[in-house]
Amino acid sequence: MITVEDLHMHFGGFRAVDGASITIEKGSITGLIGPNGAGKTSLFNVIAGVLKPTSGRVIFDGEDITGLAPHALFHKGLLRTFQIAHEFSSMTVRENLMMVPAAQSGEGLWNTWFHRKRIQAEESALRAKADEVLEFLTIPHIADEKAGNISGGQKKLLELGRTMMVDAKIVFLDEVGAGVNRTLLYTIGDAIKRLNTERGYTFVMIEHDMDFIKQLCDPVIVMAQGQVLARGTAEAIMSNEAVIEAYLGTGLKNKGLKSPDQAAGAPA
Is 222 exposed, middle or buried (0-12, 13-18, 19+ CB in 10 A)? Predict the structure, then answer.
């Protein structure tokens, strides 16, 4: 579904991504891990159109999408979430979801004057869709809450819910579990699994919680110093000496890879 070919992203003399090549299979939940400064977020930003690469290509369903803007990729079904949720804080949770689909009739001044019934019908359908999404995510009780007032974990669920308001093909999750309590993390993980198995979503996720990675991801890709270090199952990755060394350093590699939170400190 996604092929990244010899990707480079340089910032002056700093090589954030230094010749990375990866393949994301359709229908997979792929984990992307690595120590701070490994290039994970820069790789995400290039694929999602936030950054234009120094060189290399990104292929999506056979089409070269290198350098396309995020809104163009949105219409192709490629979406991403962010480590810090970006909600409209003064709007309700339901209204945040209803804002997602593009080209709504109510956005045009002409339609607000002459096509009110069309706008009302669209809004009714969007409301029903938003309520269905909230039910799927098991958070219908916060539908009418201001998005700025809900918890961090609920905001992560709202970000996931936004991807359900359109025909997403692949979703890039940037530390969806960061700062989330274990109960909500379970809810988020369950939603990701169900979207994958029931609705055919493909996911790629940067994450520092290895237990979360083990529960959800196959394969797991490890980056270090802007390059791909290893790829395999979570179990194989966690016993890979090169991966352990990248996280913990040569002198500590035999002590065991626990979790990147413990090994690498703050998120990259």
Answer: buried
